[in-house]
Amino acid sequence: MKIQDILKGYDIMMDCVPLSITEPGYAYLNACDTGIWVITFNYKHLDVERDFVTIQQIIDVFENNSSYYKTSKEKYEKELPEILSILKRQDPTTKIYFI
Fold it and tell me: How many angstroms separate the CA atoms of 60 and 75, rounded?
């Protein structure tokens, strides 16, 4: 399953790359006019696989390590609770594969 299968109607880009941060990942709402959510996972982190993450890991990143560009604050405050609500209705162990 892909993140777009669950979060239809939201512009989301998700990837897994080596990061120098200690967290498993981060999410932010981009400042462009369309407001794309970017979720990046750190495959150097022991809890992150290179091919997939679970719904719970995505929820954790949104709840603990998400931000926005100052021009996107209104959209962030509107969409973040909606996205979390959708994700929390899913099986938290569901694997979401990177594209």
Answer: 20
Q: Which residues contact 52 (CB under 8 A, 6 or more apart)?
A: 95, 96, 97, 98
Average pLDDT over residues 32-60: 89
> Residue 64 has which token pair?
């603990």
The token duo for 66 is 């998400």
Beta bridge partners of 29: 37, 68
CA distance 25 to 53: 11
pLDDT of residue 27: 92
Residues in a beta bridge with 41: 16, 25
| 18's tokens | 């080596």
Q: Tokens standing for 96?
A: 């979401």
Please name the amino acid found at residue 52.
F
Mean pLDDT for the chain overall: 92
Question: Which pTM does this prediction carry?
Answer: 0.92
